[in-house]
Design goal:
Layout lengths: L2 H8 L3 H10 L8 H20 L4 H9 L10 E2 L6 E2 L1 H14 L6 E2 L3 E2 L5 H11 L3 H21 L7 E2 L4 H12 L4 H11 L5 E2 L10 H21 L8 H13 L32 H10 L4 H4 E9 H7 L10 H4 L3 H11 L4 H5 L6 H7 L2 E7 L10 E6 L4 E5 L9 H12 L6 H9 L7 H7 L4
Parallel strand pairs: 7-8
Antiparallel strand pairs: 1-2, 3-4, 5-6, 7-9, 9-10
Helix pairs in contact: 1-11, 2-8, 2-9, 3-5, 3-7, 3-19, 3-20, 4-5, 5-6, 5-10, 6-7, 6-8, 7-8, 8-9, 8-10, 9-10, 12-16, 16-18, 20-21
Length: 455
């Protein structure tokens, strides 16, 4: 089927279908469980921002190329309370959220981190003077659209990165919060659509720090596209259709227009889960299991470590580069390092990365004793079954099936615990949590005022 026929059969350009789907999300139509989980994801996203190294904010400002504004009038940089242009705030807060690899995940046919849309939503809501209800509705739409795209337009299997989906999600969420019409939002989307297909190279091998900025750069571009559209710049109404056609050439399947026929399915938001450790998502169960197996001096008593995980996990996290990580970005994606550090230390945190523990002789020696084996040939990105086996020098063996989360599935407790820990002494976490719990009942500025009150 040609791309022209695909578009005409749907009755509207693809950008218009996406815009309508995002704009149709309404709080009154959402299940209470969906609303509650979206609030949990917002709490968790703030925790991830505060978990970032403090020095990263100034570095991210330099990457953005714009300095914070004196006084008020812009959007808040969450970690410091300073103000910046909304595009800069989206990039800086997005980099802070992403830097520790501590944010949420949705993994199945493809993988994505839906909460990466939250910094853009916050920046747009703040400069627009949006209500808490408007913020929540747009945020749910963005989270849901990321899950939908991961299901309907998987990119990783074809050598692309999921941050490309930001070229669709960010302009629509920003446009909705800035109160652009649906038609204007579709026009903005067609200005950003050319960035849909992002090569995955920066997240392979020795992972670079571009992964910290990849989504934020897309978000900054979306704010620029809004300005350009308002100034009269417009592109082809079919550009997103053309980009979807390019994706179809790689995937061998046309984009499923029917996925948008009845709008988004907001309950998909409830498929998003959270992390406890600052590491790649599929390593969470294995790190948890390794922490439980920790004993003083355990590295000296181990003869070898065997890890059984999905093919995708072994390919992405146990390639040769991951046995000798050179930076924190590669280390937190390294199966050998994360497991061995957890075995030796009994924990895995931002401090593990800050102290460059991959350079420690004891941990490096244990990494040399570790082998990873794929237990399934599943082409998807779900975590799948995992097992950790320790063979000891005395001939004994310990085998543990890795499960996650280890203590139940209460994501709210995970998010609240993370925020209280990482915001301690810097922001009133309980005030922020209370505000988020009732965010739909007041102006969004109530939340921003809490960010601006730092200890």
């Amino acid at each position: 089927m040609t791309q022209e026929k695909q578009s005409s059969s749907s009755g509207a350009p693809l950008a218009s279908l996406f815009a309508s789907a995002v704009y149709d999300v309404a709080l009154d139509k959402l299940a209470a469980s969906t609303v509650d989980h979206a609030k949990t994801i917002l709490i968790d996203a703030l925790a991830c921002v505060y978990a970032a190294p403090a020095s990263l904010e100034d570095q991210a400002i330099a990457v953005a190329g714009e300095q914070p504004l004196p006084g008020s009038g812009g959007a808040t940089l969450i970690a410091s309370g300073r103000n910046a242009e909304p595009a800069t705030a989206a990039l800086v807060n997005g980099a802070m959220l992403r830097s520790r690899d501590l944010m949420d995940v949705c993994a199945g046919r493809d993988v994505s981190h839906p909460s990466e849309i939250i910094p853009s939503a916050l920046a747009a809501a703040e400069v627009a003077g949006a209500s808490g209800r408007e913020l929540l509705e747009a945020m749910v739409a963005g989270l849901c659209l990321h899950v939908t795209l991961a299901r309907e337009m998987p990119v990783h299997p074809y050598g692309f990165h999921h941050t490309g989906h930001a070229a669709i999600v960010a302009p629509l969420v920003i446009s909705r919060l800035l109160r652009l019409s649906r038609e204007q939002a579709a026009s903005v989307l067609n200005l950003t659509a050319g960035s849909l297909l992002v090569p995955e190279g920066f997240s392979r091998g020795q992972v670079t720090n571009l992964k910290t900025y990849a989504y934020g750069l897309q978000a900054k571009n979306a704010f620029t596209a809004v300005r350009q559209s308002r100034a009269g710049l417009c592109g082809s109404q079919q550009l997103l259709d053309e980009m979807a056609g390019l994706w179809s050439k790689f995937s061998g399947a046309p984009f499923n227009h029917g996925a948008l026929a009845d709008g988004l399915k907001p309950d998909l938001v409830e498929q998003i889960w959270l992390k406890r450790f600052p590491a790649q998502y599929a390593l969470q169960p294995l790190i948890s299991a390794a922490c439980k197996l920790h004993e003083p001096g355990i590295a000296e008593r181990i003869s070898n470590v065997q890890v059984f995980a999905s093919r995708r996990t072994v390919e992405r996290c146990a390639d040769s580069a991951k046995y000798a990580p050179k930076n924190a970005e590669a280390a937190d994606h390294s199966l050998p390092f994360c497991i061995c550090a957890a075995l030796v230390d009994g924990s895995f945190s931002g401090e593990t990365l800050d102290k460059c523990r991959w350079q420690d002789a004891e941990i490096a020696g244990l990494m040399g004793k570790l082998s990873a084996e794929a237990v399934s040939n599943d082409a998807g990105y779900a975590v799948g079954p995992q097992k950790l086996v320790l063979q000891m020098k005395d001939g004994t063996e310990t085998s543990v099936a890795a499960e996650y989360p280890p203590d139940g599935n209460n994501w709210r407790d995970v998010a609240v615990g993370k925020l209280r820990c990482h915001a301690q002494g810097r922001m009133d976490a309980d005030a922020a949590i209370s505000c988020i719990n009732d965010i739909e009942d007041g102006p969004a500025r109530n939340l921003f005022s809490i960010f601006q009150t730092h200890s």
